[in-house]
Write a structure and sequence with these properties.
The chain has helices spanning 3-11, 19-33, 52-65, 94-102, 120-134, 153-164, 186-196, 199-248, and strands spanning 34-39, 42-49, 70-76, 84-93, 135-137, 146-150, 171-175, 178-183. The chain has 257 residues and is an alpha+beta fold. The chain has a 4-stranded antiparallel sheet with strand order 1-2-4-3. A 4-stranded antiparallel sheet has the order 5-6-8-7.
Length: 257
Amino acid sequence: MSFSTDVKNEVARIEGEPKNCEKAELFGLLRISGSVTLRGKNVGIHFTTENAALARRVLQLLKNNFDLQTEVLISRSRRLKKNNRYQVQVIPSAEVRVALQDLQLLAPLGNGKLPLLKEIAARKAFLRGVFLAGGSVNKPTSDYHLEIVSDNEELIKLVQKNMQRFSLNAKVVDRKASYIVYLKEGNAITSFLSIIGAHNALLEFENVRVVKDMRNNVNRIVNCETANLNKVVKTALQQIACIRYLEQKNLLVVLPE
């Protein structure tokens, strides 16, 4: 199981959040990976994931905040690994449109000043939602890298803006048809994990990072000492070569003591 999956499984089990935080998280989840379905004049919601904990999370958030008819379909992925795919569906109805309006999913993002994200706790929940739906993070044994991907540039800029409000140096890059907001610094990644509530993953990340940094420091010291010893040996060999040359030419006797 990847480190990203461990992080998502942990934060997908967070409980006891206020209603405004649950809605902010749901807003992030559905903005990244949700879609609207149509049936006549009514609309529904469709969310697909290969993570069972995330499917349960989306279903629970919907049930906690709205009186909607939902169902979960499980199918086998056609991809190489053939993991299960979980489809959370909200049956189209008039109530769904009200829920979408409440979650501000039908409104354009505009300048990103959304009432749903006014409070600090709600912004943290929003970042948790977008990470759950479209994020990944490397284990610190390799390069430090955390990213969130979406095909919506405005949404990615909104994510970047909210990261920056927590003093995270988030940057955006476009890759093919997607936009990516990412963090490359170890301290920034640990701060992000703390923000979204992944405290166990944060401890694991820090433990691995400490060992990695210690190993790197030892390697640097050894390399420095090795380089210095090489210089000493090289200089000594050059001096011995000079002495032997002088011996061969009988010139040692002319040198002062």
